[in-house]
Amino acid sequence: MDTVTVQPKWQFSCDLEVDYESDEKALIVRSALAVDKELQPDKVQRRMSISDGKLSVHFEAVEARFLRASFSAFVDVLNLATRTIEEFDPGVDL
């Protein structure tokens, strides 16, 4: 009898947490980032949540290279969204 070992689909994961110090700012950033869906949802998943002014993001992927690419692209857009808030809300220090 042959035994087949099944690997879990989502072998690689990563978590990111950014403190915006207010749920409102975190929600603005999450809303801006939520429109960019994963290009390969069968290979990478991303879940975002907000708690106590912090944006938390959990990534899972089938391969490390997909996780790296997704995480890197996400951080680029996250940086842009954060800088935009800083630019257009002068009273905000992030």
Biggest sheet: strands, sense, closure?
3 strands, antiparallel
Helical fraction equals 25-40%
Total DSSP E strands: 3
Structural class estimated from helices and strands: alpha+beta
Beta-strand level of the residues, as a percent range? 25-35%
First-to-last CA distance: 60 Å
Helix/strand order, N-terminal first = EHEEH
Strand order of the largest sheet: 1-3-2
Radius of gyration computed on alpha carbons: 16 Å
Per-chain topology:
Blueprint: E1 12-19, H1 23-34, E2 44-51, E3 54-61, H2 64-88
Antiparallel strand pairs: 1-3, 2-3
Helix pairs in contact: 1-2
Give an overview of the whole structure.
The relative contact order is 0.22. This protein has helices spanning 23-34, 64-88; strands at 12-19, 44-51, 54-61. With 94 residues, it is an alpha+beta fold. The protein is elongated.
Core attributes:
alpha+beta, 3-stranded antiparallel beta sheet, 2 helices, elongated
Would you summarize the structure shown here?
The chain is of the alpha+beta class. It has 2 helices and 3 strands. The protein is elongated.
